[in-house]
Amino acid sequence: MASFLNNMKAMDANRYATKKTIAQGMLDIALLTANASQLKYILQVGEQHQFYKLMLILISLSIVLQVAAGILLIIQSLISMHNPKDRRVGFIINHFVDAFIFLSVFCDIMKMNFGLDPAIPHSTDDDVELIKP
Q1: Which of 71, 108, 112, 131 is deepest in the core (most CB within 10 A)?
Q2: Where does it reside (predicted)?
Q3: How far is the first Cα of the chain from the last one, in angstroms, to the nearest whole number?
Q4: How far apart are CA 17 and CA 60, in angstroms?
């Protein structure tokens, strides 16, 4: 009976790690999808947006960093960590992935501080309606 409980604990840790990895992947996809949606919005609004160029750069940079981090993670998964030389390369790739993700989150924080919210309609001077008393 004790060995059955030990096996269950080992399986639970593995199951937790698997669920955590899947959840992180889903969050990464959600962030990439949100960035794509924001890119579409800023391109539709165009230069009427007060911070058009800044938003375009931040969104594009965030997408590029996310894709680069994803590619590096795929490369890292192919590296054998048993060989010390490969392990060193894996650690270096891991540092780059961390930096790319940090910079991507920084870009996302900056763009949210400049008021990019597709839920709030952007009005132009043509849309102004005069109300007579």
Answers
A1: 108
A2: Membrane
A3: 83
A4: 31
- Identify the pLDDT of residue 68: 93
**Phi, psi angles (nearest 5°) of residue 82:** -80, -30
- Reported pTM: 0.70
Whole-Å CA distances, 90 to 5, 25, 45, 57, 94: 34, 19, 42, 30, 6
Domain boundaries, the chain: 1-115
Q: Over the Cα atoms of the chain, what is R_g?
A: 22
* Range 45-69 average pLDDT: 90
124 Ramachandran zone, left/alpha/beta (phi>0; psi -120 to 50): beta
Show the tokens assigned to 112. Answer: 């949210």
* CA separation for the pair 103, 20 (Å, rounded): 22
Compute the mean pLDDT over every residue in the chain, rounded to the nearest whole number: 79
